Amino acid sequence: MRSSQDQRLIIEVPGAITKTTGGDTGNGHHGTVTFPPFQVRPGFMLRESDLTWRFSRSSGPGGQGVNTADSRVEVSFDVRRSASLPERLRGRTLERLDGRLVDGILTVTSSEHRSQLRNREAALARLVTILRTASDPPPRARRPTRPSAGAVQRRIAGKKHRAQVKRERRANPDD
Asked: From 10's CA, which of 31, 36, 84, 174 has a CA 20 to 30 Å away?
């Protein structure tokens, strides 16, 4: 039986606002939490079916529940084999995340909160941010510029002035 106090939670991910539902079922167990698809960038939607979740006991604060609640969260996303990641972004993402991937799978962990739900939200937000950054378009190529003639003259004049000051400080052997 479901309690009448269902909660609405808002997950804050830069560039996306999504809602999940969950609530206490009255017997101490929480309802299932599902995340709607996140738009990482145009053409790249991250769906719940693309993610693999693992839960374990977390270290740190939590009182009596720290030894019994599986509040630590690991979320994994298979960058190499995911159908939701377009081919044009896949190569760039694989290249940029090369040091973080294990067999093409990106794993993000969160254990900073006491509740599993909050850790799920934090891990998912972190995953979306990492994927968004890794799939950013490459920066524009630097266009080389040359200093103006006046700038070159001022630089040379400054060097000559400094050399003259140093020359005047030297002990003169002719005296």
From this structure: 84
